[in-house]
Amino acid sequence: MVKEETMTAGAIKVSNVRKEFIDTKGETIIALDNVNVDISPGEFICLIGPSGCGKSTFLRLIAGLIEPSQGEIFLDGVKITKPGYERGLVFQDPTLFPWLNIYENIAFGLKARGIYREKKKEVKEFIDLVKLDGFDKALPHQLSGGMAQRAALARALVNHPKVLLMDEPFGALDAFTRMNMQDELLRIWKERGTTMIMVTHDVDEAVYLSDRIFVMTPRPAKIETIVNVEIGRNEKYGRKRDSGDFLNLRSKILRLLNYTGKEMLIEYNI
Ligand code: ADP
Ligand code: MG
User: What is the third-level CATH fold of 1-86+164-175+195-270?
Assistant: First the structure.
């Protein structure tokens, strides 16, 4: 069990952010414009919106992998200028090192930071946290998709990030594994208190998990609406998927997404 005193959560402030890219034809693409949001410590945020509306760009900016063309982003009042371990990243593809076993994959960040010797004990604690005990010596290809993604979660969490950034982390999983993983993630969230920012194409997933849902639109690429999910959480910390409130909010978000005026706006990555 990971100790209480190691719980961490950070506040994110996104201030007047714009991000432009130049495409192969030399034309300017506005990937994000006029984004202003504050995320409180320990909040669970989902970003939802059609493909190409800037969701991954938003995460990559907070990760410090790219810089805003305009505006600033802060973690606990400190401007983000580069990647850092206090902002963990999990992608759709677990991106584990295939030649390292699960233990070594999870220990990798600690070794890279030169703190493995003092933090060694925690590798095992995080393996237990994601319920992979007994799989320490397994190689990534020997694990199911859900297990590999749990290893990727542990690899990010072992660094005690204040914010966990997840880009469609369960997008490649089947529907049932995905629902189980949502409960696992909520359990970890409850235990760790980490601020969670997750991109998803799945409206149900967003309603099940989030405190707030940022609904994004393309052209102009911005956060169009912020939906407060004011539905009580169940014993697993999620929501009752078959309740009237759940289904109403689900419909509302689908309407918001269709309101952007294009056919087939919700795209699932299978
Ligand atoms: P999403 O994750 O919502 O599908 P992205 O954030 O990946 O969208 O991309 C938003 C827009 O910015 C898209 O039009 C995409 O083609 C463009 N884009 C993203 N990254 C780059 C890049 N490195 N160079 C040029 N264009 C990019
Ligand atoms: Mg994306």
Answer: Rossmann fold (3.40.50)
